[in-house]
Amino acid sequence: MSTRKPNDYKSELKPIWCPGCGDFGVLASLYRSMADMDLDPSKTVIVSGIGCSSRLPHFASTYGVHTLHGRPLPVAMGVKLANPELTVIAVGGDGDGFAIGAGHFPHASRRNIDVTYLVMDNEIYGLTKGQASPTSLFEQKAPSTPFGNPEDPLNPLALAIAAGASFVARGASFNTKALTELITQAVEHKGFSYIDAMSPCTTFNNTQESWKDAVTDVAPDHDPTDRVKAFDLALRGGFSLGILYRQERTTQTERYKAILEQAKPSDVNVMLDGFNARKGAAIGKPA
Ligand SMILES: Cc1ncc(C[n+]2csc(CCOP(=O)(O)OP(=O)(O)O)c2C)c(N)n1
Ligand code: SF4
Ligand SMILES: [Mg+2]
């Protein structure tokens, strides 16, 4: 039985997002989900990059790290490896995660780091005033693309499944009840859980009404343990909300714990003797 309420997760800082910004709905869902799970704020860390969405950790009463542009995942991974007892949630935008930070996403996925990654996807760079992002649509008009975006978008859900993420879902800021449940399932999932949260930027790419009309639920007979079907669903286009893919597999934390248990305590003098004995020799496997 949860003793904490969503308001217990609010910090003293009020969000400074524009009126109607989807990020409000994502934050409200996160507060509610944390309350539903009764997460201890002193054992919860929210890590972000840079962008409007990446301001989120300031608005929560948990620990938070507002890192560099594109870097929430490596920092979140480090936090989790250093202290596996913590619940670690990485958050950010589509620009942060899939442009400058894109190199980290497949590796977090294949390593199955025990972190939830919540991307507020508005298909635009909001903070820097509306440039096209990697998820902007072909021909999308934005302040930086007045003649339409000449590039095709990246598909983060398909990328996550292909790269080895073990939980892949889509939610929407305007459907907070379902998003709350998705966040709870993602955080409770063992391994890397990715949620693409459709979160309209009402100032530079106001997709609110068209997205509300376009969303459907993942079909009840979809089998989320079938990777090929999940990939097919991710590639098919449209906006199906729910869990596309879920897999049980050992996490990075568990694998490193197993290595640490096997490794013998080492003495620096023994290591130096070994190094000196091999000096000048071709580097081979340690004895
Ligand atoms: C190294 C670096 N390059 C570029 C920037 C400028 N910058 C700040 S936020 C941002 C993009 C934000 O877009 P997104 O991650 O989608 O977040 P949103 O504002 O849409 O929530 C950029 C390019 C930066 N802060 N640091
Ligand atoms: S610019 Fe867009 S993403 Fe940023 S706070 Fe305003 S509505 Fe939200
Ligand atoms: Mg964005």
Describe the model.
- By secondary structure, the protein is of the alpha/beta class.
- The protein has one domain (6-278): Rossmann fold (3-Layer(aba) Sandwich), CATH 3.40.50.970.
- 34% of the residues lie in helices and 16% in strands.
- It has ten helices and eight strands.
- The protein has helices at residues 23-37, 72-82, 94-100, 105-111, 156-163, 176-188, 208-214, 227-235, 252-262, 268-278, and strands at residues 44-48, 63-66, 87-93, 116-121, 167-172, 193-198, 215-217, 239-246.
- The protein has an eight-stranded mixed beta sheet, with helices on both faces.
- Helix 1 (23-37) crosses helix 6 (176-188) and helix 4 crosses helix 5.
- The model has no long low-confidence stretch (mean pLDDT 95).
- The protein binds thiamine diphosphate, iron/sulfur cluster and magnesium ion (MG).
Q: How would you characterize the largest beta sheet?
A: 8 strands, mixed
Structural class: alpha/beta
Distance between the termini: 54 Å
Residue stretches low in confidence (pLDDT < 50, at least 5 long) are none
The domain count comes to: 1
The proportion of residues in beta strands is 15-25%
| Gyration radius from CA atoms, angstroms | 21 Å
Look at the structure and give the CATH class.
Alpha Beta
Strands in their spatial order, largest beta sheet = 2-1-3-4-6-5-8-7
What fraction, in percent, of the residue positions are helical?
Answer: 25-40%
What's the architecture, going by CATH?
A: 3-Layer(aba) Sandwich
Q: Averaged pLDDT, please?
A: 95
Identify the overall geometry.
globular
Total E-strand runs: 8
